[in-house]
## 1
Amino acid sequence: MGSLIRLADWFGVEAVICSSDCVEWTNPKVIQASMGSFIRKTPFVEAGEPGSFLAGKNRVIAADLAGEDLYREFGGFAGIFIISNEANGLSSVLEPIITSKVHIPSPTGSAESLNAATAAAVLLGELTRRQLTGQLK
């Protein structure tokens, strides 16, 4: 979580929104990993049940191995990104709310998945690249 907070700070994410079963952002390990980002401008919102918080949002994008290829077919970034727990994946409560899924392709690797912070870094890096080059849809 600390790495996610730090990434949000670096990339200018509007807010980090967590469900009630997420790690406490005040956990000393989270604070240490955030490297001070927890005190800067990125709001940290505890949303309780994610299903009720996300219901009715225009675009809810989930990082998922079954999603569209981030580098080829993925249509855009405007919306809310869901980065789920690496071990448990997406909650079944979220499935009906998700409007699209995206995955980060592995050209030659054989690892099962990326950890949540690494996946978020790749997604946010690609978003920034598209914004800076005028390719954002």
Note: The longest strand covers residues 60-69.
## 2
Amino acid sequence: MMTRRGFVTTAALASLARWAKAAPIESSPTPDWFRDAKFGMWAHWSAQCVPEQGDWYARNMYIQGTPQSDYHRLHYGHPSRCGFKEIDHLWRAENWDPEGLVSRYRRGGAKYFMALANHHDNFDNWDSSHHAWNSVRIGPQRDLIAGWAAAARREKLPFGVSTHASHAWHWFQVAYSYDAEGDLAGVHYDGHTAPDLYCPPRMVPPDGIRSIAAMQDWHKTHDGKWYEDLPLGDPFIADWKARTIDLITKYQPDMIYFDDTGLPFGEAGLAVVEQLFATSRGLHGTNRAIATAKKLTSEQRRYLVEDYERGFSDQIQPLPWQTDTCIGDWHYKRDITYKTVGQVVRMLIDIVSKNGNLMLNIPVRGDGTIDTREEQFLDSLTAWMDVNGAGIFRTRPWRVFGEGPTRAGGGMFSEGRTQYTPQDVRFMALDQDLYAHCLDQPHEKLELHSLGRDRCEAIAAVALVGSDVPVRWKQTPAALELEAPERFPSKETAAFRVRMNA
């Protein structure tokens, strides 16, 4: 029997087939709410936001010579005396207002909302029945997932949770390391003081490493890999399964995000997804829930939604999919340069044209607030959505995703490599209308060759989305020719609504 987490075993496939036959769902599990939504927001929030030093702080603070390790030693002390468990205790979330934040996200166009349930730092953000390191007992002393869920449902948004703790067993092994150089060389960090948080020692560096570069290389080569394996029967698997099912049964999410290649831990992951779908069927009479994971096989796509972290598809996908990205680092980092609204909405348009959704993280500070620049970002995004959302939400892909010289690269971690022009246009269909989104505002005549009479049915009318100003246009055999208006109703992009003859 295969033990790789990224694959489903033969027995698991048989179980899936039995379940799929009995479950009242289509071959694609994707419910209409997700296909219609197109855009969601995410609070990727944990104690790692307290130092305001960005991603993977809980790991990197233990790796001597990294900027986060230097910061930790300067502000909190040596990790043999002050480890990450102390940061968990320092996390207070004292100014957290989930209702206000989620309401603001909804005004910014979010049609679903997701909260981080646990990260690789192995801390549960809910009243966990199987893990003492949780937000009710330690740190905020509040049930964060319950608060987020109530706020999302008050705004009538589907609610999702993300779980990343399946990697804690190797990601946190650095807590058992030590300084390779300096006054405290050889003094081990605090891993042994909290193995239930840091996970039991499995990949501990040998004594005697005496250079920072050699220690960094050791971690990169050993516990720093993105492992997708654990032996069957390992206690961590049962613990992960119990915690995740506890999360599902208590908060009944509409969506769960796995930060994994395929389902975590094979049949244990399958049992979690079955619980998710069964819970949804019990609530709604039919399954409305989805589960996302990464780098899926064709078989896995029948039951899961594929997620592209910080990436794109280079073509229309036959099944719905999702990109998740962030305006900065996943965990809050002060003074970072954020993405602009223009960058985000261009990503959104390209992704939606190819049958995808975009889920956007707005990093939250340790105290539970967002900063002034994030507030300004959301205000500008709200203004853009007020004009252009009608041509985004509820749409479906057209015959082609678009035209123009620029192609967004496919796969994960491919964002930031494209610069769009006014000739880059993406298409989306809704009822009798076709929306043509220009990824930069045209200043001269625009020719849409996909809409010429030789390729497309006759066009009845063309309008500028968000404006009553008439559009000058004509449809020739070769193209739909549009005269660019003098003014556009919003910044960054422009959208035309094209009505076909019935």
Note: Confidence is low (pLDDT under 50) at residues 1-28.
## 3
Amino acid sequence: MALVDPTPAGEALYELLLQVPRLHRLLQSLSAADEPRWSISLWGLLRNIKIDGPRTVPQIARARGLTRQQIQKLVDDAKAEGLVQFRQNPDHKRSRIVALTQDGTATFQRIDGTIRDAAQEMAEGFDIQDLDSALRVLFDLQQSLDARRR
């Protein structure tokens, strides 16, 4: 049961939020045949390490807005697949640094390339101003949800 009376903006936002998981599933299906082990979460982990460089699990978790336990599970799975490796952390004995392996870098580049190619093809049907507006809305939603979570 809804706590407040729905408004047109509230209903539109609700429908938008429902689309995000659907988009994730469709995005994941793009590379499933070529990269059966990949997921949105794995791609996000590899992308974070590729862009920000080797980091500890807590640092990755903070950057991604996820719990340390969620990231640790992803890292453990990625390590089992040979996509990441642990390095000693000179600043902390128990919190090792997570770095990409060569296979991790290559896997990230293949997945990211597939996604970028699909984005490029699909972009042909959209106006850049509409895409910029959608991106701004998603960033604003992220910040609003982050603030509510805290």
Note: The longest strand covers residues 84-87.
